[in-house]
Amino acid sequence: MLLGHNGAGKTSTISLLTGLYPPTTGEASVYGVDVFKDFDSIRQFMGICPQHDVLFELLTPQEHLEIFYDFKGADPDPVKKSREINKLMKDVGVDDKKDALAGSLSGGN
């Protein structure tokens, strides 16, 4: 967790560590893995949960998970991908709403 007043650099730090901004200098590691040299490994165990929703109103929960699954560089095998996405939807309780548009879901979903 990062705490600090507005303008302290919290968002910039997270953006660097998650690959949104390229570094100009310096070093950073997470669990001994160099963030700037081995980012593919970092993506396997690190992510970001922003304060605001990152949902697209015209996509379904399943479509969102498919996109983010690919962003994370997970196994591209279609059978494994489908199995993992179905498990995630069940784990978070949206398996019965997998085809509903995100814009129609409640805030809790």
Record keyword descriptors for this entry:
109 residues; mainly alpha; 2 domains; 35% helix; globular
Instruction: Please identify the structural class as seen in this structure.
Output: mainly alpha
- The number of distinct structural domains comes to 2
Count of strand segments: 2
Query: What's the total helix number?
Result: 4
Extract low-pLDDT stretches: none
Distance between the termini: 24 Å
Helix content: 25-40%
Q: State the major sheet.
A: 2 strands, antiparallel
- Would you tell me the overall average pLDDT? 87
* Strand order, largest beta sheet: 1-2
Shape: globular
Give, in order, the helices and strands.
HEEHHH
Structure overview:
A hairpin with a 2-residue loop joins strand 1 and strand 2. A two-stranded antiparallel ribbon has the order 1-2. The chain has two domains: 34 residues, no CATH class; 44 residues, no CATH class. It is globular, with a radius of gyration of 17 Å. With 109 residues, it is mainly alpha-helical. The protein is built from four helices and two strands. The chain is 35% helix and 4% strand.
Write the layout of secondary structure elements.
Blueprint: H1 10-17, E1 29-30, E2 33-34, H2 39-43, H3 61-71, H4 78-91
Short description:
With 109 residues, this protein is mainly α. It is 35% helix and 4% strand.
